[in-house]
From TrEMBL:
PANTHER family: PROTEIN SPINSTER, SPINSTER
Name of the protein: Major facilitator superfamily domain-containing protein
Organism of origin: Tribonema minus
PROSITE patterns listed in its UniProt record: MFS
Lineage of origin: Eukaryota, Sar, Stramenopiles, Ochrophyta, PX clade
Residue span, Major facilitator superfamily (MFS) profile domain: 15-452
């Protein structure tokens, strides 16, 4: 059945913009090490590799499991916390922690300190993404959810773009100062978030939904309705797991498997393409950093936004599988483009193929998160997103570890070979994209022809169409105009019945 596309208020757009900027800082922090390691200099002021003496295999561990182990373990905890606690405070605290990790990385002198910084970064990053996705799912209109998640995903590509530009920044101001810049920007975002945004779940019951009526002078045409009932008690982890399994377990697992495959491809390309270009096109390293940053910022962001918006529009026109078919098409087109980028005869066609890769491959995030939000019970959404994050991060880290072992074995047996590096990235990245396309098509077959049936209690647990208004310099949830009109009409009916 077709859905009507609802308008999103300006206040909600502000919250979405701020969450997107936070995601950008998160991913800039994650990918800092990838581009700082790729700086081709023997000067310890500019090169992280020269200053710390890390090996190729150590780099693979720092980029993959060094970050992801703490990220996924704490992600499970923070996913449950997102179902219970103040998500705005969770995100702000995470920002402060991972900014501290960036500062620790700037002070590192060797592998152990870098490993501690990456583990702390994973701990802080675990606070943000799940809480942000849960918050977006609660406050955005259901029919615009894929588009909203697509906008939020722009932060990933903006952050990756900043990571790419970090290579140029390091060559100008040094790699340590680049880390400090990321840390300072994160602290500023934490202060802004905490000062201007409030948790809607906690404020909605306390903020009186009839405040505008109470402020008006009493009259015979004004009758206040009783306040809404309190929200149901939070679920335990076991109850949340049972709720997910009782709803749509096959669909949730299929979406998670497809997303794990796309994360594997993304991890491999994000972590090893900078190394590949630095090795094959060393004379164009600075140009690659700028062009890659531009391509990620423009093509990646456009793909994320258009993918989400197209999925919403296609689903509204009557195609319930749109959220899964669009990512399948993008992944299918990405595999040959990655191969072309790796084996192009010269720098220009290689970078052109890379830009087209971003334009096709990055359409997955908004539709995927929209589909997952619809498939998960609202009261267990944070727990479900934590499980999704666990599977995706483990898949990505395992792919990076496998490529790192291949490249490390090559370098230990006679020098790093560009051909070996290209082959390892092609097998890992192209294979993951092909698997991703097949898994998304399989997940689409699990969506019924009539779309996503409503989960009992879904409407009660949501704030669809909610308006966010300023109060004491903070944004809170308030009833939308249609809700206020409905309240007034109901009050008039009650008054008429009592008078009769």
């Amino acid at each position: 059945m077709a859905e009507a596309l609802e308008e999103v208020s300006g206040r909600l757009k502000y919250v979405l913009l701020l969450l997107t900027l936070i995601k950008a800082n998160n991913h800039w922090s994650r990918y800092l090490i990838n581009y700082l390691y790729a700086v081709s200099s023997d000067d310890e002021y500019y090169s992280l590799s020269a200053a710390t003496g890390i090996t190729e295999e150590q780099y693979g561990l720092l980029s993959g499991f060094g970050f992801s182990i703490s990220y996924v373990l704490w992600g499970l905890v923070m996913g449950y916390a997102a179902d219970l606690s103040n998500r705005v405070a969770i995100i702000a605290l995470g920002l402060i922690i991972w900014s501290g990790a960036n500062a620790l990385m700037a002070a590192a002198r060797g592998y152990r300190c870098l490993l501690a910084a990456r583990a702390l970064l994973g701990f802080g990053a675990a606070f943000s993404n799940i809480a942000s996705l849960s918050l977006i799912a609660d406050v955005c209109p259901r029919a615009r959810l894929a588009e909203a998640n697509g906008v939020y995903a722009i932060g990933l590509y903006a952050g990756s773009s900043l990571g790419s530009l970090s290579l140029v920044m390091a060559e100008r101001v040094g790699w340590r100062n680049t880390c400090y810049a990321a840390a300072l920007s994160g602290l500023l975002l934490a202060v802004t978030l905490f000062a201007t945004v409030s948790e809607p779940r906690h404020l909605a019951p306390a903020a009186k939904p009839h405040a505008d009526l109470e402020a008006a002078p009493p009259s015979s045409s004004t009758l206040l309705l009783p306040p809404p009932p309190p929200p149901p008690p939070p679920l335990t982890v076991a109850q949340a797991a049972r709720a997910i399994l009782a709803a749509r377990p096959q669909l949730v697992l299929a979406i998670t498997a497809a997303a794990a495959a796309v994360h594997a491809a993304g991890y491999v390309t994000n972590i090893y393409l900078p190394v590949f270009y630095a090795a094959r096109f060393a004379q164009d390293a600075a140009l690659y950093a700028v062009l890659n940053a531009t391509a990620k910022a423009l093509c990646g962001a456009a793909s994320a936004y258009v993918g989400g918006r197209a999925a919403d529009a296609w689903r509204a026109s009557g195609q319930p599988r749109a959220d899964l078919l669009i990512p399948a098409a993008g992944a299918a087109g990405a595999a040959p483009l990655l191969a072309l980028a790796l084996y192009a005869p010269s720098f220009a066609p290689s970078v052109a193929a890379l830009a087209l890769l971003y334009l096709l491959a990055e359409c997955w995030s908004g539709p995927t998160m929209g589909a997952l939000a619809r498939a998960l019970p609202p009261a267990a959404r944070g727990t479900g997103l934590a499980a999704y994050t666990l599977a995706s991060t483990v898949a990505g880290s395992a792919a990076v570890w496998a490529v790192g072992r291949t490249v490390g074995d090559s370098s230990s047996s006679g020098g790093a070979d560009v051909a070996v590096l290209a082959r390892a990235v092609a097998v890992g990245g192209c294979g993951a994209y092909a698997a991703c396309a097949a898994l998304y098509c399989g997940a689409a077959l699990l969506v019924r022809a009539d779309g996503y049936a409503e989960i009992p209690g879904d409407d009660a647990a949501r704030n669809d169409g909610v308006a966010v208004r300023p109060s004491a310099a903070r944004y809170q949830c308030a009833p939308s105009p249609p809700q206020r009109e409905s309240q007034r009409a109901a009050g008039a009916r009650l008054r008429s019945e009592r008078g009769g």
